[in-house]
Write a structure and sequence with these properties.
Layout lengths: L3 E7 L6 H8 L4 E4 H11 L11 H27 L4 E5 L4 H13 L2 E9 L2 H9 L7 H12 L2 H8 L3 E5 L8 H8 L1 H8 L1
Parallel strand pairs: 1-3, 1-4, 2-3, 4-5
Helix pairs in contact: 2-3, 5-6
């Protein structure tokens, strides 16, 4: 496949990554560990209210979380092998991991982009609390700080293929802006 694209959509829990990915990248393969993790939690009859788990349930959930990482990595590698356009839905807390994935993608002929979904902490907390899968407030706070602590590094690394999306309010339609952003190379080639 020519013109393969990989889009990292990063941001804190509750920033709207998954909703955005489904809405604007429905024809891409979405690599999202949360989907696998939630499925494993349900298959193991734990439910999704992680913050209410007892000690034994938290231990099982921790094992399932690690298993979901392995399964997600396998899905990523398979999707790249198949030459699929992909979206990587990630908090973005581990800069080195993102760069490693980016290098792997580019060695396999992909053009890579990053969209960082930014939402104020209070709004992230509110959104996470209203979800079906609810985890502790501290996890949301940690993910918020870790995710946005890397903003300048990602901006520098991705350059003109980095976009910060302020996703504070529901109902704003980013579609046209993102179509232009993702197809920037094609637009440049048409103009030149």
């Amino acid at each position: 496949m020519k013109n393969k694209k990989a889009v990292f959509i990063c941001g804190s829990g509750g920033s709207g990554k998954s909703t955005f990915s489904k809405k604007y990248f429905g024809d891409y393969t979405i690599i999202d560990m949360d989907i696998i993790y939630e499925s494993l939690l349900i298959q193991n009859k734990l439910g999704l209210k992680i913050k209410d788990f007892n000690k034994d349930e938290r231990e099982i959930a921790s094992i399932l979380f690690e298993e979901s990482k392995v399964l997600n990595d396998g899905r990523f590698i398979k999707s790249v092998s198949n030459g699929e356009n992909i979206v990587i839905d990630s908090i973005g807390r581990d800069f080195d991991v993102i760069l490693e994935q980016r290098n792997y993608l580019e060695k396999n002929g992909y053009t890579t982009y990053m969209i960082m979904m930014y939402v104020e902490l209070d709004e992230c907390l509110k959104r996470v609390e209203s979800r079906e899968r609810v985890y502790s407030k501290n996890i949301t706070i940690d993910s918020w700080h870790l995710s946005y602590g890397n903003l300048s590094l990602y901006k520098k690394e991705f350059g003109d293929r980095f976009m910060l999306a302020y996703n504070q309010y529901d109902g704003f339609d980013w579609k046209n802006k993102f179509e232009i952003f993702i197809n920037k190379d094609r637009i440049k080639n048409i103009i030149l």
